[in-house]
UniProtKB/TrEMBL annotation:
Membrane-spanning residues: 32-56
Family classification: Belongs to the NAD(P)-dependent epimerase/dehydratase family.
Gene3D superfamilies registered for this protein in UniProt: NAD(P)-binding Rossmann-like Domain, UDP-galactose 4-epimerase, domain 1
Membrane topology listed for this record: Multi-pass membrane protein
Enzyme nomenclature, EC number: 5.1.3.6
Organism annotation: Dillenia turbinata
Listed name of the protein: UDP-glucuronate 4-epimerase
Domain NAD-dependent epimerase/dehydratase: 94-328
Subunit description: Homodimer.
Catalytic activity: UDP-alpha-D-glucuronate = UDP-alpha-D-galacturonate
Record-level GO cellular component terms: Golgi cisterna membrane
Length: 426
């Protein structure tokens, strides 16, 4: 008779293990379920286990519900829906990214004023004083526009917005702006202008219905192009800054989403936009501040002391171009992430068509401010600037219809607003 357990099993290792395990299980099974009362206890235990698992699941669900309250919650969803509601027949429902930015604020207000639904999203980053962005947010809220504090890289948040509202359009203005800052913080351009854009497009392509997208490209894509005025068909493969390169990349990226998923895309190449509620990093703003404070200003010059020139464009013209683009965008054709037919892909210059040299800009500021500027002329550092910009807007005039270029006399309105901001220490 075998005296030990081991002697019961053959010596083949694989088999040994299996048999040994099954034997052990058998013995455990025998021990545990030896009597019906123990079986009854086991049944009770299993029921309790199932019940606690189910209640844990509901805890997890309510937890994720609670978590999404930071994205949403019932109150939040209500605010989003109310803000997105249209108040005119044939109105559109627009998600405006970068809504607390300069252009975003003006476009949001204009849409709301004509009865469209608007929901804004902005990450309130500190590229420039966020208190200016908060002040713009307050202005928008006064007009019953709800602004979500969030980043376009947040896939969950964007998806939730599209789950809450079937946006017909996206006006994509969130971006890392500024040409020269790209040398200081290159990653921020990749984060917003590339990764953020792709994230937004990923959400839009899966949305049902897919929205039509209008977004801000830039005059900087013309880079070192020397054909003037700049036309949409001109070459754009010589960017002078990382900013320009990310905007150019955006044009290519949006093209692929148009091609693969049937998203309607309109890219707008803005030319140095100025006006009330403008950006403090831009020359007309920083020059105004310095002139008023008696500080010198640095005026860049090109090679051989050639003046730099910009096709400075007034914000109201840009707003008209944005609204005209939204109105003519046509529908995206895809659904469920699949293309169902060709959709519009367009690019337009939005510029003033009459460049002004930077020294002349300073003259105009001096006239309005009635203060003489202390000018330091410096050769343009090789940090992303281009010598001049000049828009040909024939295409925008023809296809957007509403395009009427204003003259530079709108400077006064801008300056009054800048003064208010400067005195408010923004
Ligand atoms: O159209 C665009 O795509 C871009 O427009 C804007 O860029 P820019 O045209 O560079 O505007 P802005 O900074 O106002 O400089 C104006 C002029 O002043 C010169 N400039 C500037 C600063 C300074 O200290 N001295 C100076 O001479 C400077 O050399 C330039 O000649 C947006 O910021 C950018 O986000 C993008 O949208």
């Amino acid at each position: 008779m075998p005296s030990t357990e081991d002697e019961l099993f053959p010596s083949t290792p694989g088999k040994f293990k299996i048999d040994r395990q099954s034997n052990m299980l058998n013995r455990q099974f025998n021990r545990c379920f030896a009597s019906t009362s123990t079986m009854f206890l086991w049944a009770l235990f299993l029921i309790a286990l199932t019940a606690s698992y189910l209640s844990f699941q509901s805890f997890v669900d309510s937890g994720s519900r609670y978590f999404s309250a930071s994205l949403g919650g019932i109150q939040w969803e209500k605010q989003v829906r109310n803000s997105a509601e249209t108040h005119r027949s044939g109105g559109i429902s627009v998600l405006v990214t970068g809504a607390a930015g300069f252009v975003g604020t003006h476009v949001s207000l204009a849409l709301k004023k004509r009865g469209d639904g608007v929901v804004g999203i902005d990450n309130f980053n500190n590229y420039y004083d966020p208190s200016l962005k908060k002040a713009r947010k307050q202005l928008l809220e006064n007009h019953k526009i709800f602004i979500v504090d969030g980043d376009i890289n947040d896939f969950k948040l964007l998806s939730k917005l599209f789950d809450t509202v079937a946006f017909t359009h996206v006006m994509h203005l969130a971006a890392q702006a500024g040409v020269r800052y790209a040398m200081e913080n290159p990653q921020s351009y990749v984060h917003s202008n590339i990764a953020g854009l792709v994230n937004l497009l990923e959400v839009c392509k899966s949305a049902n219905p897919q929205p039509a997208i209008v977004w801000a490209s830039s005059s900087s894509v013309y880079g070192l192009n020397t054909d003037v005025p700049f036309s949409e068909s001109d070459r754009t493969d010589q960017p002078a800054s990382l900013y320009a390169a990310t905007k150019k990349a955006g044009e290519e990226i949006t093209h692929t989403y148009n091609h693969i998923y049937g998203l309607s895309i309109t890219g707008l190449r803005f030319f140095t936009v100025y006006g009330p509620w403008g950006r403090p990093d831009m020359a007309y703003f920083s020059f105004t501040r310095n002139i008023l404070q008696g500080k010198p200003i640095t005026v860049y010059r090109g090679k051989n002391r050639v003046d730099l020139a910009r096709d400075f464009t007034y914000i109201d013209d840009i707003v008209k171009g944005c609204l005209g683009s939204l109105d003519t965008a046509g529908k995206s054709t895809g659904s469920g992430g699949k293309k169902r037919g060709p959709a519009l892909y367009r690019i337009f210059n939005l510029g003033n068509t009459s460049p002004v040299t930077v020294p002349n800009l300073v003259n105009i500021l001096e006239r309005h401010l009635k203060v003489k500027a202390k000018r330091n002329y410096v050769e343009m550092p090789g940090n992303g600037d281009v010598p001049f910009t000049h828009a040909n807007i024939t295409l925008a005039r023809k296809e957007l219809g509403c395009w009427v270029t204003q003259l530079y006399n709108s400077t006064n309105a801008s300056i009054q607003s800048l003064l208010a901001l400067i005195y408010a220490k923004i």
